[in-house]
Design a protein that fits this description.
Layout lengths: L23 H11 L9 H6 L9 H13 L7 E8 L10 E12 L2 E11 L5 E11 L1
Antiparallel strand pairs: 1-4, 2-3, 3-4
Length: 138
Amino acid sequence: MTVQYSDVQVGDQIPLLEPRPIDRTTLALYCGASGDHNPIHVDIDFARKARMPDVFAHGMLSAAYLGRLLTQWVPQAQIRSLALRFTGITQLGHIPTCTGTITEKFEADGEQRVRLQIRCGNQHGEEKLAGEAVVALA
């Protein structure tokens, strides 16, 4: 089903994305997929030497989840901008919880668009990434 500009309002939430909890397998797979082999994400001894209690998720893994939040709602070709800032560390066992809220409806370059406030937190409500996206709608 295509999301229609006329069917959304400021304040509407897009469907939640809640991937599986972060575990060592997820981190190892992300290392391979992204090419980011920083040992702080997979080597507990390295992480502890860096004064961390254990390994933790790549910030860009959470960013990828926010990308998936958007692309489960609209096709990728409709995304006009995406801006993110990292606000916390996603630890092992955290369940990423990605949300988006429409904050503005407007027209630009002959398109009907919406601006969304997007966020990736965890099951405890702690924010890990925050940002905004602009999406074109039919």
